[in-house]
Amino acid sequence: MKELNWIQMSDYMHTLQEFTRLAVLKQTELTTASAGEMDLLSRIYLLKSPVTPLQLSQQMKMKKSSISRIIHHLLEKELIIKQKNELDGRSYHLILTQKGQEQLKQHYEQFLTPIYLLYRKMGQEQFLEFIKNIQTATCLLQE
């Protein structure tokens, strides 16, 4: 495969950055929680079992310090609670509160606006191919 020159690659990188910036901007209408907070809330909800900050850090591919900041904000807003781990007193699990569940249900459409928009405009087949390509690229970058 022919290697592309740096000018072409820079253009592709700018396209990718513009895409991610626009996707995030579509989420800025969230009023009481940031996109990162909504992401973390949705992961806790979808796991349906107590989760540790380390597990979230690994799942979200984020530094534990970044996860800790998000957790701190969610605790202040009473959207999650800490529950001491019965097996290991040094660690704790995060549990979604009733208020957190309500927040998630109230704002999930805004949070998912970019993905719904792409699905509607691209159509199912093209959208699923796009997602498959992103998943492949993500795996390659993780190597």
From TrEMBL:
The keyword Secreted does not apply. PROSITE patterns: HTH_MARR_1, HTH_MARR_2. Gene3D superfamilies: Winged helix-like DNA-binding domain superfamily/Winged helix DNA-binding domain. The keyword Transcription regulation applies. InterPro entries: HTH_MarR-typ, MarR/SlyA-like, Tscrpt_reg_MarR-type_CS, WH-like_DNA-bd_sf, WH_DNA-bd_sf. Residues 1-143 form the HTH marR-type domain. Keywords: DNA-binding, Transcription, Transcription regulation. This is MarR family transcriptional regulator. It comes from Clostridium facile. The lineage of its organism: Bacteria, Bacillati, Bacillota, Clostridia, Eubacteriales.
